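Per reviewer request, we include the raw input and output of the structure prediction for the construct analysed in the revised manuscript.
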Amino acid sequence: VDFIWGRALTSGKEGGAAGQAFAPVRANAPMRPPLEPARVIGLGHVVLQCTDFDRTMDWWMRHVGIIASDAQILADGSVNLAFCRLDLGDTPADHHTVAIAGGIGSLYMHSAYEVADADAVGQGQQVLKAGGWKHGWGIGRHYYGSQIFDYWRDPHGALMEHYADGDKCDAHQPTRYSRFTRGSTWMWGQDQPKDFEGVGPTAILLLMRNLIKGEVKWPRIKLVLASLKPSPRPWLK
């Protein structure tokens, strides 16, 4: 983990708050967003997977001072996923700057970049499609953080996300707890693709290796699999 201190943040719009998406008011002027690459405001968050959730979460809380905005629990009551924000006191911070998930290995999952607004997400998608990039998931709106999202894969298969219109919380907002499920990460849009769940030969080999090494426990993996089994949208056939 690398930290950079002292860099000034700007919104990309003079006079705006850092990281704030644009919300223009228009009259007698139809919306004609340009077809151009999404204008990135900055790195919004990263998502990490770990084999020991409690120890990893404790490290981040002690050394970085993060606050869990939303935490998802398994059937035994243990937390397996936390969306964490920076503690900026009375100043609202992004709903999450780092998300930590318990899983089969210690992995970097994806990084997310805030863009100017929802039109930047949509027009940026067209530019990336035209450029031959591999689409990952979206467009949709997340549940935790409320961002309008769009995911893409680089030539090596790594995920990145463009998003806009995310939630902010100050230090007084308590952590909210909910069940860990497959459908709890988005409100509308496409169902989450199967490859987001880490299914495949590489994942199976990683799981077997870490089970043998004792870094992951099969009873906990069973709890995670049981949480992912129900249909995320039972009303959609």
